[in-house]
Specification:
Largest sheet of chain B: 7 strands, mixed
Number of strands of chain B: 15
Strand content of chain A: 15-25%
Largest interface: A-B, 55 and 43 residues
Number of helices of chain A: 16
Radius of gyration of chain A: 23 Å
Structural class of chain B: alpha/beta
Distance between the termini of chain B: 26 Å
Shape of chain B: globular
Oligomer: heterodimer
Distance between the termini of chain A: 57 Å
Shape of chain A: globular
Strand content of chain B: 25-35%
Strand order of the largest sheet of chain B: 10-9-8-7-11-12-15
């Protein structure tokens, strides 16, 4: 137990972080940041433009970043647009989050050969996962990683697959310079400014013909990476510009979620007619759970070859929106779409508090943008709050 | 979890929660038409399998899959492991075809257990429905092994038909004891049945126990448990003295897969045995 705790990745910056101060480096220096991370053996994963969306992928040069791109998001809609500058991080969020890198969609748990006297099990993982540096992590995504840390590392059991990927990840946060149409991190106090869990945090500033980054380190290794760059102490004017950008993002959240008494509100409205209403729109397609940076559910599949001599156990992402998810002999516990949507929403915003001490939602808004019918969880909660305590019978007779 | 019942495998499982141990089928015993018991022994011969009554294992059939099944053997005889299950899906169908000597993978034991120590000096009422008797049998073995530590011990058992009565010969043996009250009932009788007809909750009202000094252990279909706890509470048994074993879909047994959630609980690690007062607000709800 003690050893596991020590192995847990750091969640918060060291106390000295605040003293280190913030520095400035100019846009041309950015390539050296990438080079410096690569030189330390990190595979840098950052935002790229692919298939009309921002996708986190391997990045070796700043040219591969979404230079001059931004995104527009609203319920059921996501679209890339050109900016009139050459910002590297001038967008809000892609669909994908960092989850696929830490909690991959498919993992082979083990392989086995049929044995006469015992199961000849060949454990996984055989090879070490890459040592990643995540570039452009948003504040909400840092919170999402902290939430999954609790799920996979914080209990009596530790998930070895997650731990091996999570340990040693270098996190370069970039504070948001704009809030998306589906963002509500400010409501959940998870952004838009990254406050913990990063090695480096950057603010990208483009104004008055200048393009630079204000940087702060959260860890010693972050400070070491920064030392290898050509930096200047940030001037009060530059710091003010950086702070203004983040404050502006905070003031322009596209969505809002009133979290007052949220758990109690949803728990006491477990039979609210709004669940029927949303079930009438929900396709139970599971998109929301796939793009959600905190959804962690998986299933296990058994794969055998034609000889029947070799078997593999694969763990795959799963979703509470499928009927198979809750299947026990005789049928599914959550047979109706109503109960499945309710399970997802109340897990995120109510029972997650009981299980892990925080909301399971970070306010990134992905589930809103990537819902094919534009269901908006903030609107569903608002509707329940508006008619708190209403029963179906009352609604029918109203 | 009680230290005297702490399972041996917990340490190894914490390091690699997916690690399986090889067990050989010693015997496969048909129970009723659609239920059977697997008797398993560790392949390495020496190992003892320590568990607490009410815990479960994940059983893996090579090339087919893995499922949770409660342990139904005697915790004081840890050399063989019994699992009783119903043939309902791919894995249990494959299990029923296993021949003596066939090898299974076992992970566990997992989950919370029946509070048998808390039952001491009290009356114990065990209410089981159908195959719900399987996870209760280890508790009964434990109690009968130290019978003088408990007050009255009552087993109330309900099955669909006389042919569906699980562990029938054992039930009949228990019924013959002077220190154990066994009442059985069936939903539908057939010719030759001279016993009770009706749901198991109907037995609670006239069962001999002191409600204020009783611990109740309940396992069966969820709807049966809902009515059972109502009846027990009507008799005056406090919610804190009623314990239920819940069932949900499970893939991992260690809280990672999310399948077994029941409100705020993960049935695999917070359960399967729950005290009623912790579950109460969720037990009455549907499709949770």
């Amino acid at each position: 137990m003690t050893q596991r705790r020590q192995n847990r990745p750091p969640h918060s910056p060291s106390p000295r972080a605040a003293d280190r101060g913030r520095v400035r480096f100019d846009r041309p220096e950015f390539g050296r940041l990438l080079g410096g991370l690569a030189a330390q053996g990190y595979q840098v994963i950052g935002p790229t433009v692919r298939d009309g969306a921002l996708v986190y992928a391997s990045v070796t040069s700043p040219d591969e970043l979404p230079v001059g791109w931004t995104d527009e998001q609203t319920g059921g809609s996501y679209c890339l647009k050109r900016r009139n500058d050459a910002a590297l991080f001038g967008y809000t969020l892609g669909p994908q989050a960092w989850k696929p890198y830490l909690h991959p969609p498919t993992v082979r748990l083990w392989r086995a050969r049929a044995g006469h006297r015992e199961l000849d099990r060949l454990p996984e993982p055989a090879a070490d996962p890459p040592k990643y540096a995540f570039l452009g992590v948003r504040a909400c995504e840092l919170q999402a990683i902290a939430i999954q840390d609790k799920v996979f590392l914080g209990g009596d059991f530790v998930d070895p697959w997650y731990r091996r990927r999570r340990e040693g990840v270098f996190l370069v946060a970039v504070h948001c310079g704009q809030a998306g149409g589906t963002c509500f991190c400010a409501s959940l106090n998870t952004g838009p400014k990254a406050t913990f869990g990063f090695d480096l945090a950057l603010t990208e500033v483009i104004e008055a013909g200048r393009h630079y980054f204000v940087a702060e380190s959260g860890t010693d290794r972050g400070a070491a990476v920064l030392r290898d760059l050509s930096t200047q102490p940030a001037t009060p004017a530059e710091l003010a510009a950086a702070d203004r950008i983040v404050a502006d993002a905070a003031a322009h959240m596209g969505r809002e979620l009133d979290t007052r008494g949220l758990k109690e509100l949803l728990t006491r409205n477990y039979e609210h007619p709004r669940w029927d209403d949303v079930a009438g729109r929900c396709l139970t397609c599971a998109n929301c759970t796939m793009v959600c940076p905190t959804c962690f559910c998986t299933t296990v599949e058994e794969v055998t070859d034609l000889t029947g001599e070799h078997a593999q156990r694969w763990r795959k992402w799963d979703s509470c929106f499928t009927t198979e998810f809750s299947f026990i002999h005789g049928g599914s516990v959550r047979a109706s779409p109503r109960s499945r949507y309710r399970q997802w929403l109340t897990h995120k915003l109510a029972t997650w508090y009981d299980q892990f001490g925080t909301a399971g939602c970070v306010g990134c808004g992905r589930c809103i943008a990537w819902c094919p019918v534009g269901i908006d969880l903030t609107e569903e909660v608002r509707a329940i709050r508006r008619s708190d305590g209403v029963t179906l019978a009352q609604q029918l007779t109203a | 979890m009680r230290t005297d019942l702490d399972p041996r495998g917990a340490e190894a499982t914490a390091l690699d929660p997916m690690a399986v141990a090889s067990y050989a089928v010693r015997r496969l015993k048909g129970e009723t038409d659609d239920t059977f018991t697997l008797e398993l022994q560790p392949v390495d011969g020496a190992a003892r399998f320590s568990f607490a009554p009410g815990q479960f294992n994940m059983l893996y059939v090579f090339g087919v899959g893995e499922i949770p099944i409660s342990i139904s053997s005697d915790p004081l005889k840890p050399k063989t492991l019994w699992h009783t299950t119903r043939e309902v899906g791919t894995v249990t169908r494959a299990m029923r075809q296993l021949k003596p000597g066939a090898v299974l993978g076992v992970r566990g034991p997992f989950g919370t257990h029946w509070p048998v120590d808390e039952c001491e000096a009290k009356d114990v009422v065990i209410v089981a429905g159908g195959i719900g008797l399987a996870p209760l049998r280890p508790a009964l073995y434990r109690i009968l092994a130290q019978r003088d530590r408990y007050g009255r011990v009552v087993l109330l058992y309900g099955a669909r038909t006389p042919a569906d009565i699980l562990y029938r010969s054992e039930l009949e043996r228990w019924r013959a004891r002077f220190d154990l009250e066994v009442y059985a009932t069936v939903d539908r009788a057939m010719s030759g049945w001279r016993g009770n007809v009706g749901v198991v909750t109907g037995l609670i009202g006239r069962a001999p126990f002191d409600a204020l000094n009783t611990v109740a252990l309940v396992c069966g279909p969820e709807v049966m448990m809902r009515f059972t706890v109502q009846e027990l509470q009507r008799r005056g048994v406090r919610a804190q003295a009623i314990h239920l074993s819940m069932e949900r879909n499970m893939k991992c047994a260690v809280g990672f897969c999310g399948h077994c959630q029941f409100g705020p609980w993960f049935v695999c690690k917070d359960g399967p045995v729950f005290r009623l007062d912790r579950l109460r607000e969720w037990l009455g709800k549907w499709e949770v």
